[in-house]
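re: ur question from earlier - yeah i can do the single chain one, its not a big deal. heres the input i used so u can compare w yours
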Amino acid sequence: MTNANPDKTLRKFRRERAIGRYVLNPVVKGLTKLGMHTAMATELETIGRKSGQLRRVPVSAQFDEDGAWVICQHGTRSGWGSNITDNPNVRVRQGHQWRSGVAEIRPDDDVVARGRKFGRLGSGMVKALETTPVSVRIDFTD
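and the output i got, formated as tokens:
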């Protein structure tokens, strides 16, 4: 997404980060703890670039035989996007199984076309919440 007003993009990022951090992420984590999984979200585990601690965030993923595609709605401005840049070794939950993989940010991928593959609702969510979206490819290593 190209935005002529960087201040507006930064305000949107801060608003969307707060909604994710304090509303959406806790709801998905709570459902996961109850054993309820949704097709709209799975968990991605990265290693914190500053803390070295494991970090889990809910993401929408499109799985195939060799890995998964994820859209990082805020690019490397997001915590998990920055974590992947620093350490691409990740885990992603596929159903009830955790899969290990290597993540790569793919700025050359058509993020709009990729978003359409997430279905109408998923695509709409990405569009509504994005600031600087970028595709991320996770290739399984297990």
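Strands lie at 42-47, 54-59, 61-63, 67-72, 89-94, 97-106, 134-140. not sure if urs matches, ping me
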